[in-house]
Amino acid sequence: MRTAFLTLLTGALCATAAHAQLPIVQTSFTADPAPVVINDTVFLYTSHDEDYAPPGQSQFRMRNWMLYTSTDMVNWTDHGVVASLNDFSWVKDKNNGAWAPQVIERNGKYYMYCPMPGGVGIGVLVSDSPYGPFKDPIGKALVVNSPEDIDPSAFIDDDGQAYLYWGNPNLWYVKLNEDMISVDGDIVKDPSIQKTRGQADPFHYQEGPWVWKKNGHYYLSYASTCCPEGIGYAMGPSATGPWTFKGYIMPPDSRATGNHPGIIDYKGKSYVFGFNFRLNFMRTDKHHERRSVCVAEMTYNPDGTIQELPWWDEGVSVEQIESWNPFRRTEAETIAWSEGLKSDRSDRVGMYVTAVHNGDYLMLKGVDFGKGAESFNVRAASATAGGTIELRLDDRDGTLLGSCPVSGTGAWGAWRTFSAPVSKIEGIHDLYLVFTGGEGELFDLDYWQFNH
Ligand code: FUB
Fold it and tell me: How far is the CA of 185 from the centre of ligand 1 (A)?
């Protein structure tokens, strides 16, 4: 898609160096985070609010699911769409309803559980790789229970028993067989969470269940209260409760109608993912259901309860786990923060950065130049006159490290390598690639690298 993306994001970007800026993805609207740690990498699957929802779809238009990965929790690589409603032959409505998914690994295979539009049930996809491609192994719904069949979430207990949870306004669950694509026994309406709106409701459960186990305690978190939704949690003695409400991981906030938890441990820390509407409000003062995934470090108390966090952007933070090595090939779509850019995929080079206009930029956090670099090179393509990549340090207007001219290559998709010398640089800096040139789109970017 070559649609111009001219609206520059504005607003104060107040995060300090080596901390994530929120939301963590700016090239698309993302929602319903489903993180999972695979080997040394965080795989973050999300649902996808499209930039435009036609009148009548004013809530959200959602047709596919996206993937982002990170090894440092602040720089995220965009892998684009990894599955869509088109992957389910038995689903008629392919135009909207690709709501919250979750991916879980078992025996070297990756299972993605997806809610379907029109109340036709919950589907499952499987892949040999967490990057996909995902295929429907059963050609029908895994679960068809009620109009509440949304927000599927899977958990495998220590004894190997897997469960699938879902539902709004009730919490439902069923045991999964070891094949992860068939169910074992009856569907259960969780008795702990009998929804009673108002003061009497101890849970304020809405939707978005997420179950995990840590230090012998079972946890259930979920979007709680409505509306706005916060992230509430309960604890229990087993994967099926009985659940006892414990409080908020993040209280509701009037700046967001919704929320949706995804929780992981990674490299010795715990994280809660959810979403806010900051990107939407950077572009318009109108509330659209166009959401953006955020993440915060989460802390457990000695008794296993969880410390309450303030709202995203108000003191929550994520420290960079390890600095970025710029002397290896870096995909251009690896970004901590960007303005004005989009990503797209081609058969030839995979994901690349596009919709690059004069004044747009991307930034990587915590880039370790060690004792110095000699030169920079970048793989780019342009059907126009091209432009220049300014390499700046620590700020969009920071010290100029070098300028790399990128000329027209004759066509979009005609990739060439461009190089430029860089001035003396040492140590760790945030790296800004600032794009300058004339009117219209300047170039597409595949990858870049610094050289000693
Ligand atoms: O993204 C669509 C729906 O909004 C999800 O299924 C819910 O959890 C809420 O985030």
Answer: 27
Strand partners, 429: 367
CA angle 133, 136, 142 (to 5 degrees): 140
3-state SS class at 434: strand
For the chain, how many structural domains are there in total?
2
Phi and psi at 424, nearest 5°, equal -65, 135
Q: What residue numbers bound the domain in which 130 lies?
A: 22-298
Cβ-contact 378, 387 below 8 angstroms:
no
Does the residue 276 lie in any domain?
yes
Q: Whose CA is nearest to atom 8 of ligand 1?
A: 208
CB of residue 33 inside a 6 A radius of ligand 1: no
Q: What is the 3-state secondary structure (H, E, C) of 54-104?
A: CCCCCCCCCCEEEEEEECCCCCEEEEEEEEEHHHCCCCCCCCCCCCCCEEE
312 occurs within a structural domain: no
Whether 100 is in the pocket of ligand 1, judged by its Cβ within 6 Å, is yes
Residues 335 and 411 placed together within one structural domain of the fold: yes
pLDDT value at 370 more than 70:
yes
Q: Would 84 be classed as within a structural domain?
A: yes
31-54 pLDDT, tens digit per residue, is 999 999 999 999 999 999 999 877
Look at residue 94 and tell me whether its pLDDT is greater than 60. yes
Average pLDDT, the chain: 92
Is the distance from the beta carbon of residue 150 to the nearest atom of ligand 1 less than 6 Å?
A: yes
Is the confidence at residue 4, as pLDDT, over 70? Answer: no
260 lines ligand 1 (CB under 6 A): yes
How many residues make up the chain in this entry? 452
What are the backbone angles phi and psi of residue 97, rounded to the nearest 5°? 110, 10
Is residue 320 pLDDT above 70, yes or no? yes
Question: What's the pLDDT tens digit per position in 109-130?
Answer: 999 999 998 889 999 999 999 9
Among 246, 274, 298, where does a domain finish?
A: 298
Whether 14 is covered by a domain: the verdict is no
**Band of pLDDT at residue 285, cut at 50, 70 and 90:** confident
Looking at the structure, tell me whether residues 237 and 383 fall in a common domain: no
DSSP code of residue 286: S
